[in-house]
Model the fold of this input.
Amino acid sequence: MVRRQATIADVARTAGVSRQTVSRVVNNKGEISAQTRQRIRAIIEELGYRPHVIASSLAGGRSRHIGLVITNPAEEVPTNPFFLSVIYGASTEAEKREYGLVIRYAPADEVIRLRENVFGRGQVDGIVVLRAHRDCAAAFGGRGPDQLPVVLVGDFPPDCQCPFVDIDNTSGGHLLAEHLLEHGYRRIAVVCHSPAGHASADRRVQALLDAFRLRDLPVAREAILWTDSTLPDAYRKALTVVRGCRPPQAIVATNDWTAMVVLRAIHDTGLRVPEDVAVVGFDDLPLAAYLEPPLTTVVFSGFDLGRSALERLICRIETGAPAGSAHLPARLVIRRSCGCPLQPPLEPDPFGPVELSLSGERRGAELLPLASDGLPVAPGSWPAPEARSSPGQRSIGNV
Amino acid sequence: MVRRQATIADVARTAGVSRQTVSRVVNNKGEISAQTRQRIRAIIEELGYRPHVIASSLAGGRSRHIGLVITNPAEEVPTNPFFLSVIYGASTEAEKREYGLVIRYAPADEVIRLRENVFGRGQVDGIVVLRAHRDCAAAFGGRGPDQLPVVLVGDFPPDCQCPFVDIDNTSGGHLLAEHLLEHGYRRIAVVCHSPAGHASADRRVQALLDAFRLRDLPVAREAILWTDSTLPDAYRKALTVVRGCRPPQAIVATNDWTAMVVLRAIHDTGLRVPEDVAVVGFDDLPLAAYLEPPLTTVVFSGFDLGRSALERLICRIETGAPAGSAHLPARLVIRRSCGCPLQPPLEPDPFGPVELSLSGERRGAELLPLASDGLPVAPGSWPAPEARSSPGQRSIGNV
DNA sequence: GTGAAAGCGCTAACAC
DNA sequence: GTGTTAGCGCTTTCAC
Done:
């Protein structure tokens, strides 16, 4: 005999109550006598009854699902590992609130259509968009009668009509500035990963300058070097700074790739990091920890970004209150390039953009102290062999 | 007046037909006179009717959703970028087949429970599990009446009861062997990223040996160096090989992290790569392209893995035919460490584990040829500043 | 505290 | 080709 999955009617019949009563027990809604509740619970257990999500969605008018749209600008492949942290954060929050998370990739200019069509009729109760276009923000501002609520993840103007969450480049800049000031550095230079006018670099630089100006240590305009977004240009600019008549005590790169090039320029000039000049970056790329010296950098939590977006969206869905926007704070990852002494090996940040093995061969206690021999790292030798154990731990591709 | 979303009944009434007829038009099912179809189409358009997915799920008994479970072994953070490629592939295929993709993280030992409870009643029509435990495979083998179909992604025995897809380490090993043989290398050594007995390394090594043996070029047992999964050990082993009385013409590392350490060992011995000895790896980590020299390596497509898993699952769902398992072929990424001449800059692999900017500031034509000056890369200087432009392109954390 | 009735919006099965 | 009937399994509303 084929045993059909038990329905709410089966439970009700067995318990000798109405389906409504069972529904109340299942959803913890309304007043139920403790005795009835207990009896029904037992029967549910016995019959192996599980609510049918689809049916309750239809009847209740809420699917308890959220759509997560990952935007892929033309020609770009949406496999930035940072996204995965965002997804993980979103999924974690969804699970906690007992929502399903429906994921979908889409070109940025199709997002609006997506809300109307694909996710249009009851499939999801709201949408989170990763890195939406600015014009989406405008389109999603108005909350019409049948419009799904939306929360954006990315960089939007403060007066954005649509709620959003973003990383806080400004707090990142401040954090870094404070740390450099604590080191006693007074003369700094900044090498940017882009020309002026690009949001993330602008914000990082501005925050840095503000913090120094607040201490009456204004940074000269000449000490801010914008680039054309290429590494060779960054290298030239870094050389200029380092070989100037009065080299800075610290160089801030506005991202880690740029920081790497700065490190090279400094070395090529015959100076040492951090003894002669400190270097810091932004983003905490997986390789930042492996550089020589390991790079002090600012990290933003994708996990928190995803979690926060879902939190806001679900709150909006369930209470109807407008979601509101937020910038999530940065965190400083102190390694050696800033001049700090060798740090004890840190546990990997549970929420950071860390690569991990698919092979399940991870071992707990294999992290060794990072190399500190100060010797030049050889070609192709990076990282230093003493630098880290457990290669399997970070390998990619072993499924 | 609040304009309610049009239902199938609205369309039917307006068209003067039954709801069933409208349903047929919408789903392209059954024979409909061209005229009726056209009229209904027009009315659908006019009314802005969109099918209610939930309602059709309930009525049709199929949700047109697939659950994607991402397994996180204890204490490990599931943010391996390789996963993101898998997710992307899965999502792409789901979209093509018009399925929704519900994503969910879970400890490996809860996957079985997940199938029964969370995804149990109609929420999804099938499940894909990333890196399930071996015992899940057994549990999912039996296809009972109410059991959701499952496809696994990962390494399972050939006689696995449950259909799975996996990367083909064996083809990867062969590919690499063929290439080394084409270079004319006869004497090779292998440095493994793990002890013997670990599936991925075992398979890679075995395939390599088989290919060489087939040419009557057996690899000596002493030339296979297993490690304790730590980089320092790999470094020691690599030194042993390189400093032996007859150093090999090529060294295969079973993953890229290990390959990096091998590169260092070779340099520390005063030899050059690839002139004195060639080096190749596995996995194509994002950094492989940036090493000096750029690393020739074997890559597996996470995208294809995800796509294939969904393809099989959906086929199983729609036809009822058993899904069957497969190993997806590897691809060789030829750079310079194998002795090949400098390659022209390649477009980023659209499906590979590539990091990309969140900032949307990507520029098209900024890729420059990789550095080939042959100079030692300085401490912390990696990559060479000429090596690559467009730092923003690979930055992480700019949302 | 509990129950009865009336759908949610759609599709399956069969009739015509 | 098209319509009719009967649900899918649950929640909502209101009655008692």
About this structure: Chain B has three domains: 8-51, 65-165+303-328, 169-299+332-356. The domain at 65-165+303-328 of chain B is CATH 3.40.50.2300 (Rossmann fold). Chain B touches chain A through 137 residues (CB under 8 Å).
